[in-house]
Amino acid sequence: MQSNARYQGAAVCGPRTLIIGDLHLCPSRPDITAAFARFVEHELENVEALYIVGDLFEFWIGDDDINAFTDQIAQIIQAATAKTQVYFSHGNRDFALGQRFSQRTGMILLPEIACVELYGHTTVILHGDSLCTDDVEYQKFRTLRNKPWFRFVTAAMPLKLRRYLSDRGRAKSKDRAQQDDYQIVDVTEQAVDSVMREYNASRMIHGHTHRPCIHQLDEGRERLVVGDWYSQESVLVLTQDGATLHRSAL
Fold first, then answer.
1. DSSP per-residue codes, 126-195
2. d(CA 23, CA 53)
3. 20 vs 100, 210, 247, CA distance in Å?
4. Which residues are part of a known binding site for substrate?
5. How far apart are CA 128 and CA 119, in angstroms?
6. β-pair partners for 190
7. Which range in 10-24, 168-182, 224-238 is most confidently predicted, on average pLDDT?
8. Binding-site positions
9. pLDDT, tens digit, for every residue of 110-136?
10. Cross-referenced PANTHER family, in alphabetical order (predicted)?
11. DSSP state of 206
């Protein structure tokens, strides 16, 4: 039977792993939600695992924010986990996603930096915001955000207040992205090299920058960057034969 899958990589009949990220799902973009649902329905056959490298959501204010939209996405992820193992790395927009939603959907939460063996490569997988070390203001906030007391206090806030603060934070982030220099919002070579050497990795996979590319580094290493889903699907396919980036219009 002919497969309807588009993202099959080089080994059409062999095992493959898919990587996506930066979908930024939100109620105001039902087209992206529909694309994600189609992806889950058609692209997960003969897939060993699906990795979502953060910012699956445009914002996530807590697992207790249960509504029609989060229910819809939970059902889509449940359909994905019924077909294959789904792993999730927290992004800067959905760092508050927790065990309750993970258990609800069957999605496995990864540590901030996950190190796995994929098709003969020691691979580090992360969202990528921690690699943007020239963005000093954001890194200060990120350090604060990761403190247990900060997470406890914000989780205890009323949903309405969390939603208000999230809206303000996203508006500020959008303004800064329009003003900042290109290099400040991209990763730094030093941060990439430091992480890869710490884990003795030959591959790094991340998102966050919205600049999909397969970068060939020194010593035969690779940095694989998945793109966002604002106007296209961006899917990284890994097989025994290598890595390929695919783009498809929404």
1. --SGGG-TT-HHHHHHHHHHTSHHHHHHHHHS-HHHHHHHHHHHHHHHHHHHHHS-GGGGS--HHHHHHH
2. 10
3. 22, 11, 11
4. 92-93, 135, 173, 208
5. 22
6. none
7. 224-238
8. 22, 24, 55, 92-93, 127, 135, 173, 208, 210
9. 999 999 999 999 999 999 999 999 988
10. UDP-2,3-DIACYLGLUCOSAMINE HYDROLASE, UDP-2,3-DIACYLGLUCOSAMINE HYDROLASE-RELATED
11. E
- Above pLDDT 70, what percent of the chain? 89
| Separation of alpha carbons 189 and 187, rounded Å | 7
Phi-psi group of 177: left, alpha or beta (phi > 0 → left; psi -120 to 50 → alpha; rest → beta): alpha
Helix (H) or strand (E) holding 37: helix 30-42
Query: Please, which pLDDT band fits residue 160 given cuts at 50, 70 and 90?
Result: confident
21, β-bridge pairs: none
Summarize the confidence of residues 169-191 as an average pLDDT. Answer: 67
Q: What's residue 103's pLDDT? A: 97
Distance, in Å, from the CA atom of 214 to the CA atom of 227, rounded to the nearest integer, reads 11
- Rounded to whole angstroms, what are the CA distances from 202 to 77, 120, 152, 153, 237? 30, 9, 37, 39, 17
Give per-residue pLDDT as tens, 37-93. Answer: 999 999 998 899 999 999 999 999 999 999 999 999 999 999 999 999 999 999 999
Whether residue 12 is predicted with pLDDT greater than 80 in this model: the reply is no
**DSSP 8-state assignment for residue 25:** B
Q: Which CATH superfamily is domain 16-127+201-249 in?
A: Metallo-dependent phosphatases (3.60.21.10)
3-state class (DSSP) for residue 210: coil
State which H helix or E strand residue 40 sits in.
helix 30-42
Q: Which residues are annotated as a binding site for Mn(2+)?
A: 22, 24, 55, 92, 127, 208, 210
